[in-house]
Design brief:
about 350 residues; Fructose-1,6-Bisphosphatase, Chain A, domain 1; D-Maltodextrin-Binding Protein, domain 2; 8-stranded mixed β-sheet; 5-stranded mixed β-sheet; 17 strands; EC 3.1.3.11; carbohydrate metabolism
Amino acid sequence: MLEKFTAPIGTALDRFIAQKQEQFPFATGELSQLLRDIALAAKIINREINRAGLSGIEGSVGEENVQGENQQKLDVVADVRFIRALIKGEQTCGIISEEDENLIDTKNPKAKYVVAIDPLDGSSNINVNVSVGTIFSIYRRRTSLNTPPTLEDMLQPGRDQIAAGYVLYGSSTMLVYSTGYGVNGFTYEPSLGEFFLSHPNIKMKENGEIYSFNDGLYYQTSEGIRNFIEHCRKNQYSGRYIGSLVSDFHRNMLKGGMYLYPATKKHTQGKLRLMYECNALAFLAEQAGGMAFSDKERILDIMPESLHQRVPLFIGSKNMVKQCLQLLNEEGQEKAAKTKKTEDRQVTE
């Protein structure tokens, strides 16, 4: 009976990070400290979210952010908290945030790393008590130490990430991250103030039966996307769409499924941000055995052109993504054939 009450709690995040540090022979503790800084800020945001309804920080600020979206109070709070934690941690020389237009120089020129972050994804869902999240990517800087960070440091393809992850604030708060050696999830124990390993070596099912898609966009998408949605419906897949990217992705990674936000008539280049959302989740998906593509190429191979670049996203279980890409490819072939037929007819005439 006593064993029930004295059973091990589990491996704390700090201990796990220390144990895995040997996987990075070039590191001397800075990356470990950077991950701890992110975890600390996540604990603070967790507290703010849990008391949002009582502290009066729900709702809109009344202004638009750089993305042209209505900025929520908690967007601002999360942005400030994470930037402050990263600056004071002194392990990053530069930060880019979905909430800020330009690169942030942390005035830590000796730091080896730069961070891209979406401080609070899905923040409008706070008002209705729905799960939200934080998404982050970590890169090694490209410019020399003891110099200010530049766009060269930030505009790196996703394949160059050395770590990426997200924090899910829901019925429990989870930190999920990868340093390129698999994906591990940690659940927050508020009474102890610690994250503990709860989901070791997460693997995504190759065949999923959940599709996450905003059905209101159905007629705004291409024929190939509509064909894929019909394929899911005919096979009686479950349609699950929360509206918080982290929440949708997390469910599909654990249960098997696919999230898609294609190009639409309104957002012809896609809506999700490459640097703040797509790269990090693509890194995690591939580490867990899944796939992540835009409509044209692997997400991690896209060379970013701007800090707030948008792309379509198809991410999740490998065979579902392949099926979607196949239908998109067939649509492209049909269009090419029709174009050629029209051109041949014009030449003949």
